[in-house]
């Protein structure tokens, strides 16, 4: 793993993100527009929340009048009865506000949680259906950060900051109206203060938004870096690179901190500035108002009510500007989530799917297939490949490393579409089949067995969740896995750990083979990896494979030539081209490349075992 600050891919990604984060004059309301499809599902909740919001704001405004009455009619007129009555009124208002606040807080927070949960679900279901090359082009840590950090941010914004902002906006508007009604001259003083507060707030808010997107990106970088190191911890430790990784990680963390520092500096500045300006305006107002009370042009209660409203407006404006930055962050997060959701999957179901005709004797056909991986547009991984596989036939694929054998599987499963030519299954172009119809009859046994961190039942049942326990056990027996599974601490209920860390290589493979057997596929795609196993496990796995291959069309990537001896036909690939085809014997004569591979393999086998290799399966001849 290279130092990520020097990794060109990473630098590229970061710089292109930076290009994205140039200040865009996106008004924060646009994020609400983007979120509208999610919010509009809960119109009733929104209406309830809005009603509670308006209700509590009106009561807050009424409290100002309460204050005036308590002072003028109660305190200043020295009437105890009036004071009691007025205070009683204020208390009723306070209780009503408490109830309104409860309803508002509950509904708004509910909305935030619900919308972010829906978004999380949508993002995940979108990702799971995405074409696999998307995950080669995008760092998994960054994708995860979209799914967790960005949605969490929205949850808190919708659930609190947004309602806070709306509430403040309402009280500011109402407060201003009440100010105008109470005293025009004083209001003019307040009005001078408002633009002085708002203009710098908006300008600074924009900067905060840009910085916050950068800040989230760098947190995502930190996450993906840590994720990779943790997954590869054994390699890191075996090469004693712990200190190097700690330093590299720390550099990443500091980079994220530097960006965050810039952001918080701007936010603190914003907050300080707003508070200073707001209180200066209030001080000026109290001075003017105090003068009016002294000269008898205004009552004490009126001034108190006025100060109450003015404070309400000032805190309201300060509050709005404070969460303005947050809302801008939410706008950034929403933009990124929507970008992700708008990214189309390049591999999807056709509009009109063809049905499968399983009576066709030609099971698979490659017609002049040429394919480049998206990240390697200069080099064809498969070039002008023609191949026909009949129903029930076993075809072995051999060739040097990088010849394109695994690529062939990826194309059959339609993880990628070829740039030229077409692939047919049962006579139908696979791009015209529903993805499920195409993939259901296939089972892939990859070179590296893939297991989920769950128990044996779950892992074997993965392709057929409805299989009965007896069927799972039968599949495990057929895969020669039953004995070792029963030896596990909890048998089939044993948890296998992340990617099956608690099993040996050969055991993992046999679980994966049991999964394929249970799936009962028509087409078996085997990336044989017996070379990594000892003789005993290899024998077990080979037995399991022989069981699995019975009566199915099988394409098998043969790393060991023992396998090809049992195949109906062997195809030799070299640099993405099909260079020879035939049986073991005919290829020994016709293909120099095959002969060389065979010589090397059998020579090393003889050397290793001190005897001639015995193929497990029967030798097929011309
Ligand atoms: N995801 C990918 N993106 C870009 N290039 C790839 C990708 N996967 C494979 N390649 C390239 O495509 C070519 C064919 O690879 P492929 O994995 O099909 O070879 P292979 O014959 O299966 O090799 P091996 O026997 O070593 O597994 C190689 O040059 C490889 O570098």
TrEMBL record:
Key words, A-Z: ATP-binding, Membrane, Nucleotide-binding, Transmembrane, Transmembrane helix
Localization terms from the record: Cell membrane
SUPFAM superfamilies recorded: ABC transporter transmembrane region, P-loop containing nucleoside triphosphate hydrolases
Biased composition range(s): Polar residues: 12-21
Residue intervals of the ABC transmembrane type-1 domain: 48-329
Pfam families in UniProt: ABC_membrane (PF00664), ABC_tran (PF00005)
Renumbered residue ranges of the record's region Disordered: 1-25
Domain ABC transporter: 364-600
Transmembrane spans: 45-66, 86-107, 153-180, 186-205, 269-291, 303-324
GO BP terms: oligopeptide export from mitochondrion
Lipid bilayer topology: Multi-pass membrane protein
One cellular component (GO) term of this entry: plasma membrane
Record flagged with keyword Metal-binding: no
Record GO terms (molecular function): ABC-type oligopeptide transporter activity; ATP binding; ATP hydrolysis activity
The protein's name: ABC transporter, ATP-binding/permease protein
Species: Reinekea blandensis MED297
